[in-house]
Amino acid sequence: MSNPQLHPDIEETAAKIASMEIRGAATIAAAAATALRTQAIECTAATPQDFESTLRAAARRLHTTRPTAVSLPNALRYVLRRMAGETVGTLRAGVINAADEFVDRLDRAQADLGAVGANRLRDGDTVMTHCHSTDALACIETAVDQGKSISAIVKETRPRNQGHITARELREMGVDVTLIVDSAARRYLNAVDHVIVGADSIAADGSVINKIGTSGLAVNARDRGTPVMAAAQTIKLHPDTLTGHTVEIEMRDEREVIDSETRDSIGDITVDNPAFDVTPPRYVDAIITERGQFPPESIVTLMRELFGESVDEPWEESKREKDV
Ligand SMILES: O=C(COP(=O)(O)O)[C@H](O)[C@H](O)COP(=O)(O)O
User: Fold this and answer.
1) Separation between Cα atoms, residue 99 and residue 295, nearest integer Å
2) SS3 state of residue 262
3) Helix count and strand count (H, E) for the chain
4) What is the CATH number of the domain that holds 31?
5) Does the chain have fewer CB atoms within 10 Å around its N or its C terminus?
6) Domain of 260?
7) Which residues are listed for substrate binding in this entry (predicted)?
8) pLDDT in tens, 51-100
9) Is 104 annotated in the active site?
10) How far is the CA of 180 from the centre of ligand 1 (A)?
11) Domain presence at residue 324
12) Is 200 a catalytic residue?
């Protein structure tokens, strides 16, 4: 089967992830699992081999969209590993059940993680946020639901301004919000009790890979004595880093940073737009997961327990598919 027929939802989801219409590590993972589910339901393959080839091709298309959030390959892995059976019917059922289970676990993990993170927040605390993280917001929302009064200093998060989404959602929770430009963060840190961020990936050494600007914020927070917590459910653990692989940092289009007219008026310059950075574990006080909170240096134990020592890439083409 040289060119498997992909469902339009696969292309649409892939395009939306690439353009960031669908964004944030947990949301990307849920969208990818849901697209595979649709592919499985609508797949017209007549043989089990063709069905598997089509699902793998769909997963490969989704995998190529953005490289940094490990929740995406972890979602694809979760679903494809459960594609088992001898008939198209059983394979299809395996994918549908796995996708449903994955999304359900994602929601439950976020709720459980929120309860862990909320325990660190006290009535009257002020938090500082960076970017927009559903895991980080789950901690704040649970604290608010517990009756705690929380204020937030929200960083704008250039160039895509995800801080605006955070500001709106916190406001809807009843949190008192102050929006600041990124470069004002240090000025406000003295008045902040916790920096709380999400993660796109957590490496085996406890490094937190998150939106560009997180590492500078964490260094400043350490200098000011403000604790930093990274809220990251375990699908953010990057199993490849157990074997020494590093996490690829996505470089995005320069037009997110500067419009072409301004750029032309400046002249011959290079514009770089890294989307993420790496915060070393020594600047992070706790990683908050649905399995409890961990000092970053100890996260490797949980990673080994959940993933073992080696990871497969079940979306890769089989030898038979390559030979066709
Ligand atoms: O860095 C970002 C989003 O970057 P982008 O906007 O470039 O996708 C978020 O902090 C993490 O993805 C965690 O989000 P969540 O907690 O929702 O998984």
Assistant:
1) 31
2) helix
3) 12, 10
4) 1.20.120.420
5) C
6) 115-307
7) 23-26, 66, 210-211, 236
8) 999 999 999 999 999 999 999 999 999 999 999 999 999 999 999 999 99
9) no
10) 19
11) no
12) yes
